[in-house]
Amino acid sequence: MQILENYDEWKAAFRDGWLAHLQQTGEIDWSLYNRPDNNSAPGCPGVDLAHSRLMLVTTSGAYLPGRQEPFDAASPLGDYGIRLWSSTTPLEALAYAHEHYDQTAVNSDPQVLLPLCHLEELVGEGAIGEMAPSVVSFMGYQPDLSRVVDEMIPEIVAAAQAEEVQAALLVPA
Amino acid sequence: MAGIATTLTSWNAGVTRLTAPPRATFTRLDRGATLGRPHDFVQQRCVLDATLDLLAQDAPLKPVNLNQICP
What we know:
The complex is a heterodimer of chains A (173) and B (71). Chain A is of the alpha/beta class and 173 residues long. Chain A has helices at residues 7-25, 104-108, 116-124, 145-162; strands at residues 53-58, 62-63, 83-86, 95-96, 130-131, 134-137, 167-171. Chain A has four helices and seven strands. The A-B interface holds A 35-49, 52, 54-55, 101-106, 108-109, 111-113, 115, 118-119, 122, 127-128, 153, 156-157, 160-161, 165-173 and B 1-10, 12, 15-16, 18-22, 30-39, 44-45, 48-49, 51-52, 55-61.
């Protein structure tokens, strides 16, 4: 199972199309962007969430100002870094470095993207065993999918494995 | 994800489908408010619960459309 099917072909088309145009003109032309086209979803056994540790993964661009560097939200090439912050972080302590969605809703109610209060309730109800100590956060604009595969996913997996999670919930912004 | 069961919810079914996720729910909610309207506890829990429920099932699963389930 490949995370990005036809990886080599995708990477060459990206490099010679969308990326080359940006480098040559300084402009983004999304008509040149080649979306992924996976045909096979990975198989994985289900888990008993009531006895599992769950990790939240967010693409909201949430980070801890003053303690973590913001994501490079303005870069047309994207930001391929991740931030880890405690899953017990008060939501009002977070800032969002992301220019590709309207932050009005999340600033009004962070639960729309970071359902940590809901998840804690579910832990209290016994529906989730426990939350992972950390939330994995990144800024969900990464045009170069080869870098997502080669850089980001291994880092996210390592973080999840380090915290011995059995399940992960991805809430893209 | 390396033997870790994953699930996701997305307002962008068209793009998400292209990645062939193992478990997913799809909605027509707004970009930037993936789990539902601000302060709408009922809608947010509906989307969250439906998405988490998929973890109990072996993947891959056909994505679940929540448009009628979590209006």
